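Protocol step 4 of 6: structure prediction from sequence.
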Amino acid sequence: MDEALKNPENCKKLSLMSYNQNLKDKGEIFSKFINLEILEIQAETSIYYLDDFELPAVIGNLKKLKKISVLNFPLKTFPEWIFEIESLQYLMLRGTDITEIPDLISRLKKLKTLRIENCPLNKIPRTLSLLKNLKILGLSDTRLTNLTWNLFPSNLKEINFCGTGIYKKEDLEYLKTKLPKTKIFP
């Protein structure tokens, strides 16, 4: 982060790996990255026990962001500010405590890849089906049981359910028949 802060307006990609601090008070720092296109943040495992962890809402003001990857942070709810980033094409929230995707996901019209993985996700909204540009949907290692075919955009190229697999096998097979142009894993 220190290196990127030397010239933040020229920073297009920011990767914070093995991060071990709460980010909720870092909004002023993130607001300096006005041309940021890619944000990758991966937590060190020690941070997972912070009860008051937050990602700064000011990230939602970075209008050039195309890709966000957040790995292994103790997020309990989907950050609402994400839905303000209309340029977003790739979103991965992996290793969090998120249980559902809000209806507002439909605001991310340019989203091509959505990966909500390795979390207790148990519900996806009907509005997910409105994402006509979505091509890849990663839902591996979640607790989804409802695989109703019309929850998913018909234009998907791939859906990944690998992992826990607590859904009914016959529901997965039925989904495959309803979305024949989509590769569905497993």
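Step 5 (inspection) to follow. Residues 169-178 form the longest helix (10 residues).
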